[in-house]
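Name: HD domain-containing protein
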Amino acid sequence: MASVDAPVMPRLTGEQVLAVLPQEMKKALSALQQQFGGPLYLAGGVVRDLLRKHIPVDIDLTVAAGASIRAERLAELLGGTFVSLKQEEDTARVVYHNMTVDFSAYRQETATIVEDLRCRDLTINALAIRLDTLLEASPELWPNPVVILDPSTGLADLQQGVLRVVHAESFSSDPLRLLRVFRFAGTLGYTVEHETMDLVRRQCSMIATAAAERIAHELDLIMSGSRAYATVALMAECGLLWHIIPDLATGIGMVQPESHHLDVWNHSLETLRQAERVLAEPDTFFPAAGEIMAAYLNSATRCLELKWAALLHDLGKPATHALQTDNGNRITFYRHDQVGSQMFDDLARGLRWSNEQRTRVGRLIAEHMRPFHLANLARADGLTLRAAIRMIRKNEEQLPGLFVLAMADSLAGQGVGCIKSMEAELAWLYRHLEKIRQLHIVPQKTVPPLLTGNDLIRELHLSPGPLFKRILDTVEERRMTGEVTDRATALNLAKNLVDRQMSDRNVNEG
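Structure predicted for HD domain-containing protein:
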C-alpha cells in the first residue's frame, strides 16, 4: 500500500477522549453507569481513530454483560433510536443525530476486557480505554494521559502502519474479516503484515461462507476509497478476489488484439486505476467540459458505480473470445458488452445489490463500447445529428459517466495498434454531444409533444403496443433534428412508419 494517512499520537489525554462525546451523551452515559454500574470501555475503532487524530463518527462501547439493555436505556435518555443488531450476540446500536453508538458485551468465551480484545480481528482494533472512571474523574485530571489497554501490540502496529491479525483463528471466527483486512489496507494506507497475508492466502476460500450482503458492504467500502485499484490488486495477488468474482480470473493470460498491451484481467485492473485518475481530475481529461463532469461526479454513489463498471466492463470477453482463422487469426470479442452486462447482473443479484445500483452499473457495462463506435464514425464519415441525438437520448442520465468509463478504458489500452488520438477524440466527442444536448434536446423538454398516444389511436386507429413507443420516439427524435416541425408533418411520419411496419410484416409472412 501507499503511505499512512495520518501520524499516530503516542498517547491520549482524558480531555481528548471525552471531546468526542457531546455533553448530553456524557451526561446520559453517567446516568447509565449510576443505574447499571460495572466497567464501561471505549474499544476498537474509536480508540484507533482517536490515536490517528481522526474524529470518530461511530462510538464503540464494551461492557461485561447487558449491552442491549444499556443501549435501549441510552436511546431513551437521549431520545435516539434503538437498533438491535445480532440476535445471537448481546450487541445493539443507538443512533443519535449523526452519531452511532454500538454497545457490545464481552464475547461468550471471555471473562475480561483483555480476553475480549484478544478475540478481535486486527491488533490495531484490539485497543480499549476505560470510560466510566474518566466520566467520574474530576475535570482537573482530564489533561492527564489515559491508560490504553493493548494486549496485542496494536499501538506499535498503529505507529508502523501495519495490519496484523490478533490470532491465527481470526478468519475462522468470522470469514468476513478476510475482506476487512483489505478494507483497512485501502482506507488507512497500511501494509498487510506477511504472516497475515499468508494466512489470507491459505484461508481465502472461507469467504464463501460469509453473508452476501456483508461481502457487498465491505466491497463497496473498498471501492469507495481512494485506493480501490491498489486494494483490488492486493486482493487478486493473494487469491481472495477470485473467490468473490471468479469470472474475473478467466481473463488472466487471455491475449487481446494489438490495440491492447495487457491481457483481459490486467486491462480490467488497469481500467480501474485509470478511472481513479479521471475521477480525481476530470477537467484534465475533458478540457472545457470539466465543470459539467465535476457536477456529475459530485456524487459518491456515481463514483462508486463508475469504479465498479471500470473493473467489470470486460467481464464478458472470455465468454465471447474467438479466433478468426480465415482472417489472419484475428482475435474478436463480439457482443462482449452485452454478455458482460448479463454476467454482471447475475453477480450483482448474488451479492444482493439494490435494483437501482444493479441497473445503472449494468447499463454502463452494456453501453461502454458506444463512445468508441461514435468516435470511429466521426473520424471516418462524420457524425450525423440523428446518430448523436440517439446516443444522448439513450444514455442521457449516464452520458458523463459513460465517457469517464470510455476514457479510462482507452487509457488502459495502449498497444501498438491503438488509435493514439482516441483520448482527444473522446474528449471532443463528449463536448460535441453536450452542445447538441443543450441546443436540440433540452429546449424540447419544455414544450408539449407533437403527437401523443391518443393521436395514434384516434387518427391512425392503432392499439397501444410496442409500435406506439417506436413511433412516438421517432417523431421526437426527428423533431430534435429539425426534420419534423409541426403536427401535420409528425402525423405523416407516423403514417409512413405504420405503412413500413405493415410492408415488412407482409414480406416476412410471404
